[in-house]
Amino acid sequence: MFGEDDLVRQHKGRSDLIGNIIIGCFLLILARLWFLQIYQGDLFYQFSIENRLRKEVIKAPRGMIFSRNSQMLTDNIPRFDAIVIPQYLKNKNVTLKKLANVLGMSIEDVKKVLRKNRTQARYRPVTIKKNISLKEVSIIETENSKMPGVRVQTFISREYRDGYTGAHLLGYISEINQRQLPKYRNRDGYDYKLGDFIGQAGIEEKFDLQLRGEDGYEFVEVDARGRMRRNIRSNTLFSGIQNKRARPGNNIRLTVDRDMQLSAFKALENKVGSAVAVDVNTGEVLAMVSRPAFDPTKFSKGLTQEYWSSLVNDDRNPLRDRTIQEHYAPGSTFKTITAIAALEENIVKADQELKCGGTYRLGRRVYHDWKRGGHGLTDVYKALRRSVDVYFYQIATQMDIDTLAKYAKMFGLGEKTGISLSRETSGLIPTKEWKKKRFGEEWQLGENLSCAIGQSYVLATPLQLALSYATIANGGTLYKPYLIKEIFSNNGEIVEERKPQVVGKVDVSEETLNAVRRGLYEVVNNRRGTAYWYRGIGLEMAGKTGTAQVRSMSSKELFSRCEEMPYKDRHHGIFVGYAPYDNPKIAVAAVVEHGCHGSSAAAPVVRDVITTYMKKYMPEVHEVNSERQKRLYRAQLQKIRAEQKRKEEQRKKEEELKAENQESET
Predict the structure, then answer these.
(1) Are 576 and 469 in contact, with CB atoms under 8 Å apart?
(2) Max CA distance (Å), the chain
């Protein structure tokens, strides 16, 4: 048997090991306590403080957009949303039922919104209802203690002063969607989240980073249920916590004139089309309107499914900006380019007359003029004044299509203008190489004829047409169009200023430009001009009418009354003009879809926009021109009345003579 001493010796090793383990554990605990309370004490103290705080994001006010004359085009209006923060939601069913009663919703609808956002972090707010009333705001704030996790959040809603008028130009803002999140995060470096608003079209989209500003934040002390107790501004207990003020976005002053914008929008009332006005000598865009349009304010206030459906299901495509996204066959407005090419290539002289009948035959095909009987002997001035198709058919047979394309591209056609808006269309100026690549076929001479009068493959946007005529008016300088005059901060400091930018100089003689300009003047100011009766008072305007077919037509259909055709088969009406003729300042292009005639449908739009410009920026010239034109009108009216009187007297004499003859025969 073992003695007592032997037993002690036997267990001594085990007891020492256990003791060492206990001491080791104790030392580890002491080391951990030292690490947490001393070495990282300040850090964890900060964490403990922050558990009592909630970070409130302060949305930065979006920058304003102004017209060239500093008229406000956009505004920021406060709006209130009811939100729920799932992290602080207690007694879920009871709280949500109370909230549903306040908002006039069913509890199922509230839960549906929460389920839709269940994948996001629980500390992120979920918007239950937008644009709640002040009454709903006061009830939620009053009953806050009974509805933990429910809060009212203030947003700044975007309002567009002129509603539909600037919809496509200014664009709109709306909530970022799931598909856009990674794209915009990579592009901008911002931590965008669902519920953030971004520019989605127009100026709002293109200059979103300038306009959006930088959000701030402040910390508020909350209780265990997440209810706010007080704001943290300066307190020794929270000395390490720093709030951040929101930085407002920069403001933008446009080149656009608000009065001209309103004038263009009104002139296009009950029409489908667009109008663009540019400064001839700088490339500044003075007006840019597309109809039909939409209400951009509805996007920023929370777009409803009903309104969105009404837009996307509208056959007239109100969301599409027709000034840059639609390209049209320019019709007879392209004849100006054909005339310039013919004069420069010595295919014809300005005063050289060509015999122009009602048709022109090339091979087995007959090409018709718009006038059945033709126009007789025609020089370049008459060809433009009367828009003589057969004159340009004859030119086209002697001109290579690549030569015509060269001159068209000189004037900015067939290429994007580079304007600061998204989704611009380039239009199309065909060449032999293009057709070979596109269709695998050789170019045919007969195709020249259609292209020479602005049909077939030739396509242009209204903005391109306005710039091409501005180039003709100013003597051959093609400018890049621009919309931004300056970008400035909230305290008035200029951040960026835009200046005119020359794209190129056309290689065309002054003699050729003068000949074409004279023809364009006669279109509007000669009694035989196609736009004479739509020129308005006080305007020394020059321009060209255009009628673009939307489909191929037989000769019978070609001469049928356009207004009696089905709407979708009617021609587009186009007019491009500039003024004043002797000192050009403004060029305007207007397209009216299915308007039948450029003279009656589009010319009045251009006339109204130019009239607004002249009255505002050149009132003395407008008054002088008005008086001169009034005198001409009076003189012409007297002449017409005298002629009518002469014919009436002659008719009476003939009737008297006829009566005498009948009497004598009897």
Answers:
(1) yes
(2) 179
Cα→Cα distances 79→62, 158, 290, Å? 14, 10, 29
What CA–CA distance (Å, rounded) separates 251 from 491? 10
Tell me if 303 sits within 8 A of 311, measured CB to CB: no
Angle, helices 445-452/401-410, rounded to nearest 10 degrees: 30
pLDDT of residue 230: 54
Q: In Å, how far from its chain's centre is CA 146?
A: 48
Q: List, in order, residues 6 or more apart from 185 with CB less than 8 Å away.
A: 191, 192
φ/ψ (deg, to 5) at 543 = 175, -175
Pick from 341, 342, 348, 291: which is nearest to 320 by CA?
291
- How far is 460 from 301, CA to CA, in rounded Å? 36
Rg (C-alpha) for the chain, rounded Å, is: 37
Mean pLDDT over 58-75 rounds to 93
622: exposed, middle or buried (Cβ count in 10 Å: 0-12, 13-18, 19+): buried
Give the pLDDT confidence of 130-169 residue by residue, as tens digits: 888 889 998 988 887 788 888 888 777 899 999 999 999 9
Strand, coil or helix: what is 96? helix
Q: Using pLDDT thresholds of 50, 70 and 90, give the confidence band for residue 228.
A: low
Residue closest to 91 by CA, chosen among 137, 148, 169: 148
Query: What torsion, rounded to 10 degrees, do the Cα atoms 378, 381, 382, 388 define?
Result: 80
pLDDT at 48 over 70: no
E-strand spans in 314-362? 354-356, 359-362
pLDDT per residue over 328-372, tens digit each?
999 999 999 999 999 999 999 999 999 999 999 999 999 999 999
Encode pLDDT of 267-311 as tens digits.
999 999 999 999 999 999 999 999 999 999 999 887 888 999 999
Axis-axis angle for helices 335-344, 389-396 (nearest 10): 50
3 state SS of 24:
helix
H-helix or E-strand spanning residue 553: none
pTM of the entire structure?
A: 0.83
Residue 68 tokens read as: 């060239």
Helix (H, G, I), strand (E, B) or coil at 319: coil
H-only helix segments in 143-268: 167-170, 180-188, 202-206, 208-212, 258-267
Q: Output phi, psi for 316, to 5 deg.
A: -85, 0
Give the pLDDT confidence score for residue 149 in this predicted structure.
Answer: 84
DSSP label of 245: -
Alpha helices in 332-459 (DSSP H): 335-344, 380-385, 389-396, 401-410, 432-439, 445-452
Q: Residue 480, exposed/middle/buried by CB under 10 A (0-12, 13-18, 19+)?
A: middle
Q: Which residues contact 27 (CB under 8 A, 6 or more apart)?
A: none
Q: What is the mean pLDDT of residues 88-101?
A: 86
The whole-chain average pLDDT of the chain stands at 88
From 137, 187, 255, select the one nearest 499 (Cα to Cα): 255
DSSP 244: B
Q: What is the structure's pLDDT at 1?
A: 47
320 by Cβ neighbours in 10 Å (0-12 / 13-18 / 19+) ranks as middle
Task: Return the half-sphere exposure (C-beta side, CA atoms, 13 A cut-off) of residue 273.
Answer: 31
